[in-house]
Design a protein that fits this description.
Elements (H helix, E strand, L loop, with lengths): L6 E4 L12 H16 L3 E4 H9 L3 E8 L3 E8 L10 H11 L4 H8 L3 H15 L10 H11 L5 E9 L2 E9 L11 H11 L4 H8 L3 H15 L4 H12 L23 H8 L5 H4 L7 H14 L9
Antiparallel strand pairs: 1-3, 2-5, 3-4, 4-6, 5-6
Helix pairs in contact: 2-6, 3-5, 4-5, 7-9, 8-9, 11-13
Amino acid sequence: MADITPFFQISDSRFRVVQEWRSENDRELMHAALRADEQSVSEIDLALTWRELVLGLSVVIGTFFSTERCGLVLAPTGVPSEHAVSGRRLDICESVLCGDGQNCIAIDMKLAASTVALNARLALQSLGVSGRPSRAHPLLMRSALASKNHQLVAGSRSHLTHDGIDLQVVGIPRPDRCLNGVLPSAELEVVGYLVEGRCYAEIAKRRGTSERTIANQIAAVFRRLKVSGRSELILRLFALERGATLPMAADSAPPPSTVRHPQTQAHAHQASGFHGDSRSSGIRPVASPQARAADSAGCRATGASGEVVAG
């Protein structure tokens, strides 16, 4: 990314921990957290980090992004039950962080979409995080996903003492690192800001361009990576970290000879021995001569039912 300045946000919930922290102290905390994460030699199960947060055993007092890393700064609360998240609110928060659309959650739970949005926002506030759930920190998303799916996902853990308070720093590699060399530099920088949770207006200001240009660049990235939003993008990047193949959209439509009849494409796959899902790769398989013959027979057989018959 062009902007190598670390991005650090102090949560409003820091006032639960200590009242007298101010901007100078915040800068000291930022540098201390970055150093602690860089020097970390131990690991923690991110599902455990999520459970500690939802039980109110710790609270987010800061989030950070560097060129290679991102993470959270956590402080003990001393009052676990006061800020615990449970029941339907916890289910909603986890579902949102795991990429489920708020409208889909509302339908499944028979709730208004506004109720889902409110509960997701209030749940994050209980964890010490302000802002829209759709801009949640990637480490929170990764932790919630690990907990919900019962996965063992490790993050780095380090400790520091700031103003006499013992803090914990949990970090992971930036999820957008895997796009280096895949996207053009301008789009890569925009994606980096998007992963950090910045809005279009802020990205445009930092890039010295218009919001429309930023919106067009983000739309191009989404189209190229076959995702529909920020949450889906980050989840796709998590999958790439586990070795999944990057499904890049084709820049142009496939040649006419490779376009298959929708009713008969399954027959072509069987005849050619193809068992993959062409939607995930963006590539349409070319059928063998035997498969094309089977297709022709199948199309002629369906002509009597009123469907379009292949010429």
